Amino acid sequence: METTSVKPQFSEAAKAEIERICKQYPPERRKSALLPVLHIAQAEFGGWVSPEVQDLVAEVIGIKPIEVYEVSSFYTMFNLKPVGKHVLEICRTGPCMLRGSDELTAHLERITGAKVNGATSPDGLFTLKEVECLAACGFAPIVQVREKYYEQLDTPAAVDAMLTELRNQVHRPALPWEETGLSNALANN
Ligand code: FES
Question: Domains in the chain, start-ordered, CATH in brackets?
C-alpha cells in the first residue's frame, strides 16, 4: 500500500521566532541563522531532525538542503535519528576520562538498558551519546542533558540522583527562546 508522508510544519510561534532570528542578519546572509533555527527545529520535532525537517529548515531560511545537511551532520548536538525523551551527552575527553567517564558510561548503560551511541533505553526515556569536551573539566565527569550540566558524576549515588530527576521530569525545562511564546507548542516534546 502506498503511504503518503505529511510535510512537517513549524508552529506559528516557531515561525515567528525564526523570522525574528533571521532578521538579525542582512537578507543575503540568512544562512547565518542556521544553527539557532536547527535548534528550534530539533525542539519542535521530538528532539531530532529528520531529512524532511532539515529540508523545511532550508526552505524557511532560503538556502539549499545540502547546506543544512553539512551543518547538522557536523555538530554532535543535532540528532539525525529518533531519540529518547532525554539525550544524555557524556563527555569522554581526557579530564572526564581520567575522572571515570568510562565507568560512568558503563553504569548508565547497565541501569538504563540504552547503548552508548546506539539503542535508546527500552522505556524510551534515555539516549546515550559520547561527546567531546563540554568545557566544564573542573567538574568532571560531566553529562549534559539539553542545557543543563550534571557535574561530578563519579559515584553511583550522583548518577542515580540525575536519573531520578530526569525520570520525574514531566515536561522538559523551557529554553530561553520559548519564553517568547513557544512553551505551549513544545511542552510535550
Ligand atoms: S573534558 Fe569533560 S568537560 Fe572538559
Answer: 12-72 (1.10.10), 86-167 (3.40.30.10)
